[in-house]
Known about the structure:
Blueprint: H1 3-14, H2 20-37, H3 43-49, H4 54-82, H5 84-101, H6 108-136, H7 142-149, H8 151-170, H9 173-192, H10 216-242, H11 250-273, H12 276-295, H13 299-326, H14 333-362, H15 364-370, H16 372-384, H17 386-389
Helix pairs in contact: 2-6, 2-8, 2-9, 3-4, 4-5, 4-6, 4-14, 5-6, 5-9, 6-14, 7-11, 7-13, 8-11, 10-13, 10-14, 10-15, 10-16, 11-13, 12-13, 12-15, 12-16, 13-14, 14-15
Amino acid sequence: MARGSFEKSLEESREKLWTRDFILICLSSLATFMGFQILMPTLPVYVAFLGGKESEIGLVIGFFTISAVVVRPFVGRGVDIYGRRGIYLFGLLVFALSCLAYNWTRTVMALLMVRLLHGFGWGASSTAAGTVAADLVPRQRLGEGMGYFGLAATISMAVAPAAGLYIIERFNFSALFFASTGLAALALLFGCFVRYRKMPPRQAGARSSVFEKNALRPSLVTFFITTSYGAVVSFIALYAAEKGIANVGIFFTVYAVVLGLTRPVAGMLLDRRGYDIVVLPGILFIIAAMLLLSRAEHLGMFLLAGVLYGVGFGGVHPSMQALAVKNVPFYRRGAATGTLFTAFDLGIAAGALLWGAISQAVGYAAMYFLAALPGAVALLLYLATGRQFSGQAK
């Protein structure tokens, strides 16, 4: 083969997105998210089964989130120092063992301890997986690749919660926990076969902080966007019930479908046309969804809000993921991913707490009107740092 043809073939190989290893990390992430989402609507039922109160249900959710938030930045730094493989597989192992351990929780206190361990495994594995995916995606297709990688969360959101509720209705909680364990074990199996990039020698004077400063701006945008997401996931069912609207669960189905369709398209668009054309309309769609929810009177308005939010979030989130790792060296991608995911978790947790207090004071309709404000802050923040964000994902 002529030298020119060989170089061209090599360049095309480097730009290929759907490689063996990228498919494996996507499948591993999908199985992890399925194992996580299958427990989301069912663990509150399990707390009630154990005799727990409503406040203890909040603790069960909160302990998991706190554990994941605390560990993420340190895991991100760890994968930069010690490599991706060991930390990712260890996180998945802890995740799987935690799912199995639920079978032996007989008190709420025991459940809380397992939740702390589970949050550690979740925070470690998901942070490492995001870093591995960023390593495997060609730089020219970073937005598209992260969009496809994010479909794992979307697909699991659409399928796993309903599957979990079906399992406990048809069988029992042990069957649920074994199903979650099996999915985690499958994620670990896929993860074992990924060929991870070797860590290059660290440069003299390389930064060692757990947070990556180049990821702070997209992380701040993510924080304010997910603050509004906390209002959606935490209170949409209660708001619909107040309006006398049944079957609002279809809101999440519509949202998940639109989100899944939007992510890869948005990723390809930002790779070809730059960030602004995806992020600016995306934030405006999120703001519009909050304002529409504040005026919603029937199911159709709720579903339209789900479409708007799906399009907006499906554009903004993968864009921020791509942006967080775009201008950082290989040995700082873990820290960048950890910084972004920490902001994501904190935004949801802060939103749930903030909007809970506000809804109690002024009602759900006014709460959703006010929930548009974090989107406006994210928009202003993005515009104020536009030169940092605009341009193609090269």
